[in-house]
């Protein structure tokens, strides 16, 4: 089996990485951006088609205001500072999440990078920011209700693929490999619909310590996984 087309990463452990070094949590988040830059380049080289990274969840608003403010500013700065390098590498950047509650300045940077990179095709980088899987499914349900009310939907013809077309990014239907760094074994509300059949890969490494070699290790393990999608293995057809 080849490299998975759609990879997702829960970039977790920035705070603990910093704590281990007696640094501030903010320093951990800054280091996390550096790791993301490296992993994006690696993904381009490895010919991954799409990489979706969890940068800020709908639940992360519960953190102290100073940390939330730092993360919002870091996102804005990163979008602004990295646009040229991302364009040079042929990366298409897309935002995944709710734009409500985000400042106009941040939305401006996001729209700018989305527009300028729209024609790129080396790698699509989806940045999940103010993203929640349940929020996404709820938003889809509301849009569906609206279209049903307006007579645009015929219920007995409405299938899974039609539902999926109401999600934030229609193209992102199936995550093949979902990586979580930082040692916790949960999804934390990430890509609930799209990960239905994802292979899960967990590593204890904190996100700032995650390197290209770790990504390669995850891809190697993915190749050895047997994906059955509810069916049977090849050669396993005795009744
Ligand atoms: C992930 O690192 C980044 C965000 C959630 C924004 P954390 O900040 O959750 O780091 P830990 O899990 O506390 O170490
Ligand atoms: C998930 O990490 C969200 C991101 C990586 C952006 P969290 O650190 O927020 O998840 P929990 O709180 O441990 O479940
Ligand atoms: Mg965490």
TrEMBL record:
Its EC number is 2.5.1.-. InterPro entries: UPP_synth-like, UPP_synth-like_CS, UPP_synth-like_sf. Substrate binds at residues 13-17, 25, 29, 57-59, 61, 63, 180, 186-188. Homodimer. The active site is at residues 12, 60. This is Isoprenyl transferase. Catalyzes the condensation of isopentenyl diphosphate (IPP) with allylic pyrophosphates generating different type of terpenoids. SUPFAM superfamilies: Undecaprenyl diphosphate synthase. It comes from Halanaerobium saccharolyticum.
